[in-house]
Amino acid sequence: TKTNSQTSVVRGGTTDYSIVVTNNGPAAVSGAVVTISVPSRFSVSAGDFPSSCALSGTPGAQTLSCTIEQFPLGSQMLEYSAKAASIGVSSSTASIALTRGICRST
């Protein structure tokens, strides 16, 4: 689940994003990576995201890659702040994948 703290942001203003990732089991996993595309009309700077994340790309095409080394059953939240670089409508996506460990389907 991805949410934004505001419905609109003026150019130069800042908003906070929250991404909730959930491990529904059947067991804990290690090495989960959450990839977040920063909305194209926003920019993220160093210090605006968790230390478990790495920022790549340039404003307008940035990606956060966040590693969850140990992901027990249940939910965890990742939060980051972004600054509006231009006006208009913008959207983004988030996905999660395992880089190691076992993933079983039931």
Walk me through the structure.
By secondary structure, the chain is mostly beta strands. It is built from no helices and eight strands. The strands form two sheets. A four-stranded antiparallel beta sheet has the order 1-2-7-4, with no helix packed on it. Strands 5-6-3-8 form a four-stranded antiparallel beta sheet, with no helix packed on it. A hairpin with a 6-residue loop joins strand 5 and strand 6 (63-71). The radius of gyration is 15 Å and the shape is elongated. The two termini are 22 Å apart.
Quick structural summary:
The protein is mainly β and 106 residues long. The chain has strands at residues 2-4, 14-23, 29-37, 42-43, 53-56, 63-71, 74-84, 94-98.
Question: What is the mean pLDDT?
Answer: 87
Which spans of ≥5 residues are poorly predicted at pLDDT below 50? none
Task: Supply Rg.
Answer: 15 Å
Provide a count of the helices: 0
State the helicity in percent bands: under 10%
Category by helix and strand content: mainly beta
Number of DSSP E strands? 8
Order of helices and strands: EEEEEEEE
Strand count, sense and barrel status of the largest sheet are: 4 strands, antiparallel
Oligomer: single chain
Q: What share of residues are in beta strands?
A: over 45%
Strand arrangement across the biggest beta sheet: 1-2-7-4
Distance N to C terminus: 22 Å
Query: What best-fitting shape do the alpha-carbon axes yield?
Result: elongated
